[in-house]
Amino acid sequence: MVNIKLKKFNLEHTLECGQIFRINRLEEWYYVNAQNKFFKIRQNGNELEYHGVDKKFVTHFFSLNEDYSKILKKIDRDKYMREAIERYRGLRILRQDPWECLISFICSSASNIPRIKSILNVLSEDFGKQINLDKVCNYSFPIPGSINNYKKILSAKTGFRAKYIFETNKSMNIKTLNSFRTMTYKSAKDELKKLNGVGDKVADCVLLFSLGFNQAFPVDTWIKKVMQLLYFDNETVSNEKIRDYALNYFGDYAGYAQQLLFMFARNELRTPNRLKLWKEGKL
DNA sequence: CGTCAGGTAGCCA
DNA sequence: TGGCTACCTGAC
User: Fold this and answer.
1) Angstrom distance (rounded) from CA A169 to CA A163
2) First to last CA, chain A
3) CA of A251 to C1' of B12 (A)
4) What is the largest CA-CA distance in chain A?
5) Which part of the chain is the HhH-GPD domain (predicted)?
6) Which of residues 221-250 of A touch strand C (CB under 7 A)?
7) Which residues of A spanning 112-151 put their CB closer than 7 angstroms to strand C?
8) Which pLDDT score is estimated for A2?
9) What is the pLDDT of residue A271?
10) Which one of A8, A40, A172, A213 has the fewest beta carbons within 10 angstroms of its own beta carbon?
11) 8 Å CB contact between A93 and A76
């Protein structure tokens, strides 16, 4: 059991903001597959209850040892961010396993969440190890080197991503991934982008969600829309320009700003019209 | 049936 | 650099 103020952590926002795919909600419990673990966790006010992992794991995995107030203070730059913070307060960046995160986001390109989930589950069933919790059967994410059957990868409905997964499985390992942690943001990103199937967006996701680069600012379609509207007078600008602007504007914790804005844009401003109305204060 | 979805590689100016 | 387009697949 962990006690943490609701204002400083929100399990639902943290797990449902798209940074992790292998989660399942069953009534008030979240069943989570991550880092070789299969555990369940729920939040009741200021209390976190969990089975299958210990306090040390939970504290680390959910970044509970980060100074949340300090982070919010740094990104709270304007009325837009303030509103995103108010609505999704308690959202934290997870500390995921870099390998699992890398493969997951390679799978995410030009896809959607249900499909990504399905691919990752099939890959785990085919190449991972069985783990049980409460008689619920599940599979750990396959370790580097073990996703080595191209036909099986393809039959997980990975499509054109199959070759990226197959190649990455051959060339990448945990040690190399971990060595990126001590590099500069730019060097680490360049290294990741050497992998086929890894571009700016996927690299930034891996850097932010698993390698500790809190300044990484993944630019996807939602972030692009909301950033253009709020900070570029609704003009079309390149992803690179958006990223540079965000890094400069939000600073060391730009990644937290990205997640909050992403949630806000995706959940509440689905249509461009709503987005515009919101900016004009008419929502 | 076309379009589109949390992108990227490859090609060309 | 900047601007295309094809790419697996499945849900509208």
Assistant:
1) 10
2) 39
3) 36
4) 54
5) 107-266
6) 238, 240
7) 114-115
8) 85
9) 62
10) A8
11) no
Torsion sign (Cα): A140, A210, A25, A53: positive
Q: How far apart are CA A268 and CA A271, in angstroms?
A: 9
Rg of chain A taking only CA atoms, in angstroms: 19
Distance of CA A282 to the CA centre of its chain: 31
Per-residue buried b or exposed e for A61-100, using 16+ beta carbons within 10 Å of the residue's own CB: bbbbebebeebbebbeeeebbeebbeebbbbbbbbbbbbb
| pLDDT score at A273 | 67
Q: Find all residues with CB under 8 Å of A273, minimum gap 6, and list them.
A: none
**pLDDT beneath 50, residues of chain A:** none
Nucleotide nearest to A161 (CA to C1'): C8
Q: Which residue is nearest to nucleotide C8 (CA to C1')?
A: A159
Q: Which residue is nearest to nucleotide C3 (CA to C1')?
A: A238
Minimum CA–C1' distance nucleotide for A202: B7
CB proximity A161–strand C (7 Å threshold): yes
Nearest nucleotide over every DNA/RNA strand to the A16 CA, judged by C1' = B6
**Superfamily designation of domain A66-89+96-282:** Hypothetical protein; domain 2 (1.10.340.30)
Whole-angstrom distance, CA of residue A124 vs CA of residue A130: 9
